[in-house]
Amino acid sequence: MSSSDIFIGETIGTAVLILLGGGVCAAVTLKASKARNAGWLAIAFGWGFAVMTAVYISAPLSGAHLNPAVTLALAIKDGGWDNVPIYWGGQLLGAMIGATLVWVAYYGQFQAHLTDKEIVGEPTAKAVEAEEKGAGPVLGIFSTGPEIRNVVQNLATEIIGTVVLILAILTQGLNDKGNGLGVLGALITSFVVVAIGLSLGGPTGYAINPARDLGPRIVHALLPLPNKGGSDWSYAWIPVVGPLIGGAIAAGIYNLAFA
Q1: Diameter over CA atoms, the chain
Q2: What would the pLDDT profile of 140-153 be if each residue is shown by its tens digit?
Q3: What whole-number distance in Å separates Cα of residue 100 and Cα of residue 222?
Q4: What is the pTM of this model?
């Protein structure tokens, strides 16, 4: 794979991942959406199918890492570090593009949601608490946040979820060309993401992907959304550092137990 193929593949794939994953969060959250209040089950399956779609699209070009933690784990496993910055750059750019496309697709719903007095004029106690911590009413569409703020628990949750994801990816092997997961592997991985969301997503919203959280959070900070609140930068390091630690641990476990 050439450097340009890797960058293009990761950019396109991660953009699709965030467009569909962030899109289901917008669909469930925004007041004027037909899918409003569809619930956590819809979000978990939406993200799982987002992963499957993004992997199928980007695998021929880049192997479909789509996640800096996956790239780090594969570098530790195989000892190949040359393309890590290219993967990470494409993933972050793609995540920002995907988040922007969610805003475009739901532009009217964002405007209606954030200017509705029922939403922002008489906020609930939980909304007030979130606002005091710098989190606006739609930040959850773009990035993750904990239900209970406890640095140790939040970090541990992200590490644990990422270890499960990366071990599931590493133990499936690569396709015949050695470029990434095959067709069956992409499907299996998508269901692993659903399982993590249903089982481990409750405490933090399961970022398990630094680019998935950081890129959209940057976009949230930049977008001209009315009454959007802060981007909760005090928490932002956890969904970046936690998955990277989890990826490194998973690679270590793989090398010790499976290699």
Answers
A1: 58
A2: 999 999 999 999 99
A3: 10
A4: 0.91
